[in-house]
Structure formats: structure tokens, C-alpha cells
Design brief:
The protein is an alpha+beta fold. It has 2 domains: about 10-80, Alpha-Beta Plaits; about 90-265, 3-Layer(aba) Sandwich (Aminopeptidase). The chain has helices at about 1-20, 35-40, 65-70, 85-90, 125-135, 185-200, 205-215, 225-235, 250-265, and strands spanning about 25-30, 50, 55-60, 75-80, 145-150, 155-160, 175-180, 215-220. Strands 2-3-1-4 form a 4-stranded antiparallel sheet. Strands 5-6-8-7 form a 4-stranded mixed sheet, covered by helices on one side.
């Protein structure tokens, strides 16, 4: 039994180290007419990346996956050797104050909105802390966070509701917002935190926001996939996720786009 436990610990440690050290490269695969089928048959998720039918597929692949591409016999080109390092390098020397990225005419940055500690994005615990902070400051507009269930690893799926009577079930249109279906999409939760703070902080001084909140029941589940997101925190605590740039500049650019789509110009 003791030997089994030792082997199990070693296996877990090996998987963890492998996950942290494995390098991903941005690769252009010349697929031709049947390359996508060959990749799919070899176990690749061919739904990710930029695909030009009958020509090429551009996506991020691990060293192990690149070796499989070679074994399949497909030609490829390395476009970026180490995508994680590339994205992490974008943060070097960058300000962590979001107001430094605000251009004239942008949406006003909510007072309590700020960058997180994971390359500009919030960690899972920081997201939860923001939800608590919102309720502490605006209990008449937002509910205390409520768990609607647990993830496979036992993490809570937190939900909050925003309305002029948040604890009352009124006969108003209901809207559901959620983010982080995919573990490496942290910008989805950052724009949601921005939007929540924007609603709460501007309720008393913006007629449009007041009308929206008074006549709608808005439900928010910021993190649908907490297990995957926490795994990213373990493997890439400084950001640099391989499928999405995590930099302060990009965080702000995506937030501006999302808020404009939601609220209009």
C-alpha cells in the first residue's frame, strides 16, 4: 500500500510538471484535401484554429502533437515557437492600472474594476471576492452570491442577480449572462465584471442604466468552468494562456468591444 501511494504521488507530480513545462507553438499545417480528416482520425480537435478549406489549419500545438503531425506525414510551418512565452513577454514593463489604457471617448472605467493578478485577469478567488464586494456596496441592486451547483472537483458555481428588487421574483424580462465555458477564455469574465460594476455604479446617475435595471432581471454566472480555470492558474499563474493573449492592453480592448455591443455606442 505504501509503495502504491508513493507511485501515485510521483505520477501526479510528473503530470503536474509536464503540464507546466510543455511548450506550445503556433503552427500552420498544410492540410490539402484530406489533411483535416487525417488529423481528426489521429485525435486532433480540428474545430479549433483558423482553417482555410483544402489549404491549411493554423492553431497552437504541443511538442507531442507536432510529433504526431510529423508522423501523419503532413507538412507544417512553425509560425511562433513558444506562444506562452510570447504572450507573457507582452506584460513586461506594462502598467497594471487599467486607467492607463483608457482613450478619450471610452466608457468610464468603474471605480472598483481592476486588473487581476493572473497576467491582467482575475483568478477564481479574485472573481468571487469581486462578487462579495458588489453585494457589500450595492445590496439593493444585487443579490448575495448563490451556488447553483458544484463542479466535478467540488467548486461552487456562483450566481448573482441584478435588478431594482433583486430578491423579488418580478414579472420582468429575464436575461442570463455567463462566462468561462472554455477554461482559457478569461476575457469573458473580465468584461462581465466590468459590466456588473458599470451597472451598479451608474444606476443613480445614468437614466439608461436605471431603466435597464428597473425593468429587467439579470442573472450572472461568471464562471461556468471553475475547474478548468483553476487548472490554468496552476499551470500559468502569470498568464500567457496558449489560446488567448492575457495582457492588460488586450483585456481593455476586449472589454471596450463587449460593453459597446451590450450598451450601444
Amino acid at each position: 500500500m505504501k509503495r502504491f501511494i508513493i507511485l501515485l504521488v510521483m505520477a501526479v507530480f510528473s503530470v503536474s510538471v509536464f503540464a507546466q513545462q510543455e511548450k506550445y507553438s503556433k503552427v500552420k499545417i498544410l492540410t490539402g484535401e484530406n489533411g483535416i480528416q487525417l488529423l481528426a482520425e489521429a485525435g486532433f480537435d480540428v474545430s479549433e484554429g483558423i482553417y482555410k478549406k483544402g489549404v491549411s489549419l493554423i492553431s497552437d500545438f504541443s511538442e507531442f502533437e507536432i510529433e504526431k503531425i510529423q508522423n501523419i506525414g503532413l507538412n507544417y510551418e512553425i509560425l511562433m515557437d513558444d506562444v506562452v512565452k510570447y504572450y507573457q513577454d507582452q506584460n513586461i514593463g506594462k502598467s497594471t492600472n487599467i486607467k492607463d489604457y483608457k482613450d478619450p471617448g471610452d466608457w468610464e472605467v468603474p471605480e472598483d474594476f481592476e486588473f487581476g493578478s493572473m497576467g491582467g485577469h482575475c483568478t477564481f478567488d479574485e472573481i468571487v471576492a469581486h462578487l462579495d464586494n458588489m453585494f457589500d456596496k450595492y445590496p439593493d441592486l444585487i443579490t448575495v452570491k448563490e451556488s447553483i451547483g458544484q463542479s466535478i472537483e467540488g467548486r461552487e458555481l456562483w450566481m448573482v442577480k441584478v435588478s431594482d428588487n433583486p430578491t423579488v421574483n418580478e414579472t420582468e424580462p429575464e436575461v442570463f449572462y455567463n462566462g468561462l465555458h472554455h477554461a482559457r477564455e478569461p476575457a469573458s469574465v473580465m468584461q462581465m465584471l466590468f459590466y456588473l460594476y458599470y451597472l451598479l455604479e451608474n444606476y443613480d446617475n445614468d437614466d439608461f442604466i436605471k431603466t435597464l435595471v428597473d425593468n429587467t432581471e439579470m442573472y450572472f454566472v461568471p464562471v461556468v468552468n471553475p475547474d478548468g480555470y483553476v487548472y490554468n492558474e496552476m499551470t500559468n499563474p502569470n498568464g500567457g494562456e496558449r489560446t488567448e493573449e492575457i495582457t492588460p492592453v488586450l483585456v481593455w480592448a476586449l472589454i471596450r468591444t463587449e460593453i459597446t455591443d451590450i450598451c450601444g455606442d
